[in-house]
Design goal:
CATH architecture of the largest domain: Alpha-Beta Horseshoe
Largest sheet: 10 strands, parallel
Protein name: F-box domain-containing protein
Strand content: 15-25%
Radius of gyration: 27 Å
Organism: Anolis carolinensis (Green anole)
CATH superfamily of the largest domain: Ribonuclease Inhibitor
CATH class of the largest domain: Alpha Beta
Structural class: alpha/beta
Number of strands: 18
Strand order of the largest sheet: 9-10-11-12-13-14-15-16-17-18
Helix content: 25-40%
């Protein structure tokens, strides 16, 4: 039956939903009937032998997108792609067990014909490929051999970029027939000089696992970076290395050492307005206002996730109960017109925050919830204060806050039955409510919530887990 559907008019074929019937005969039919294909998805089609796959891609010179993830793709197939698919822009090779990172050499270069392949390739997905000894040199070769490559995600890329920047090619080992890395570098530099550009830069748009120590090098080599994950150590923050990333829109910053959130503020004062996504993890809330100031710099965010630690100086003596005190902090409010996802975490709800820190954090949370009209996904975990007064303020009539909320997750949060009922009764688009180990919510309360949802006809899925349940 599938044979009858493979007609010459097709430009886009997705066979990932019928993996088990994609065989050699199907590949032969496509070779004859579908030579004008622009997009082909063979994800998981393990019934198709590598030799048949190689002949198939050789017959599809107009391909722009090709997904071979979880197939029997091997080096022979990569050579066929490199030689035949000259217009290919996107290629997915993830979790191909017969490939390794060193196999990618044959995608970028044909040693028999001494020609570069896939010169239009922009996105290459290689998740789950084996990383044998010498794989850094293969990745380095690929980065320099594919001049239009924008997306190549691998945890070793920052190390590879450092090698290119330092031109440390002396210990490289490539198979016979391939140009040396020094020759390839000179080839790329010649092309750059013809464009009147004095240094080698790459078009990469995203990078993961960047250590702060090599951040300045990555910045020089990848001026078009849009998305980066950076691990900070305990050196002074290299703010200038971030500031020249004028195209950066999504930033993840993870702190390995002891750093205060206030350390980020000078950088965010200049960078924050251009960010659409920001993830910050493991910074200390040393100064009470640092989180509020951070948000004030990032009002164009679409997504925010933060995990913050208490000040390193321990809180001693009796703590004031902030849940019973008036809100007398006159903090300025900021609007977040594009924010759709917000996650705020604290390491342990039993570790108190200093009074003023907790008050500012709570009022900042109210500001975000009230001034984010498009908020859809909200997750709050282990915050060290009750959320009752937060939501009472946010939803106080007449309120338009949380009208578009779709998913709400409370994990190890102090919240009362009354506030959960207030959320369920408010005008919103809630479809999923998670109450995970919230000490104020019992199984009886959960049953009442589900009964309320059923009785009033709400289309809401409620998940509950007892606070006494072990992990």
């Amino acid at each position: 039956m599938l044979h009858l559907l493979l007609v010459p008019q097709l430009r886009d074929i997705n066979l990932s939903t019928c993996q088990n019937i994609v065989t050699r005969s199907i590949a032969l039919t496509m070779r004859v009937q579908c030579r004008n294909l622009l997009s082909l998805n063979l994800h998981g089609c393990k019934q198709l032998p590598a030799d048949a796959l190689a002949r198939l891609v050789e017959s599809l010179p107009r391909l722009i997108r090709l997904d071979l993830s979880k197939t029997l793709c091997d080096t022979q197939v990569l050579s066929a792609i490199g030689s035949s698919c000259r217009q290919l822009r996107e290629l997915n090779l993830s979790q191909c067990r017969t490939l390794s990172l060193t196999s990618l050499l044959y995608l970028a270069y044909d040693p028999r014909r001494r020609l570069f392949g896939c010169q239009s390739l922009q996105k290459l997905c290689i998740f789950g490929l084996k990383a044998p000894k010498g794989h850094l040199w293969a990745l380095l070769f690929v980065l320099m051999a594919l001049p239009r490559l924008m997306f190549l995600l691998n945890s070793s890329i920052s190390s590879v970029l450092h090698l290119i920047y330092k031109q440390q090619f002396d210990h490289s080992r490539l198979p016979p027939g391939f140009p040396s890395l020094a020759e390839l570098f000179q080839h790329r530099m010649k092309a750059r000089r013809e464009e009147d550009i004095s240094r080698l830069t790459l078009l990469l748009r995203e990078i993961i696992v960047v250590r702060e120590s090599v951040l300045s090098v990555i910045n020089i080599m990848c001026p078009y970076m849009e998305k980066a994950t950076v691990f900070l150590d305990d050196r002074p923050l290299l703010a200038y290395s971030f500031l020249s990333w004028r195209h950066l829109t999504h930033l993840t910053i993870i702190c390995d050492k002891h750093r205060n959130l206030s350390d980020l503020l000078p950088m965010m004062a200049s960078l924050g307005a251009q960010l659409h996504g920001l993830i910050i993890r493991h910074f200390f809330l040393a100064e009470e206002s640092s989180f509020h100031v951070l948000l004030s710099y990032c009002t164009n965010l679409q997504e925010f996730e933060g995990l913050f630690l208490p000040p390193r100086t321990s809180v001693c003596g009796r703590q004031e109960d902030i849940d019973t005190l008036d809100w007398d902090f006159s903090l300025p409010c900021f609007e977040f017109p594009q924010l759709s996802l917000f996650t705020l975490e604290y390491p342990d709800a039993e570790i108190p925050l200093p009074f003023r820190h907790a008050m500012v954090l709570r009022q900042s949370l109210v500001n975000v919830l009230k001034e984010s009209p498009g908020l859809k996904y909200l997750t709050l975990r282990r915050l060290p204060f009750s959320l009752d007064r937060v939501f009472e303020r946010v939803l106080k009539s007449p309120s338009t806050a949380l009208r578009h909320i779709d998913e709400l997750v409370f994990s190890q949060i102090r919240v009362s039955v009354q506030v959960v009922n207030l959320i369920l009764s408010s005008e919103n688009e809630l479809s999923y409510l998670c109450l995970l180990k919230c000490p104020g919510i019992s199984e009886t309360d959960y049953n009442e919530f589900t009964r309320k949802v059923d009785t009033e006809g709400f289309d809401v899925e409620i998940m509950w887990k007892s606070s006494y349940t072990s992990e």
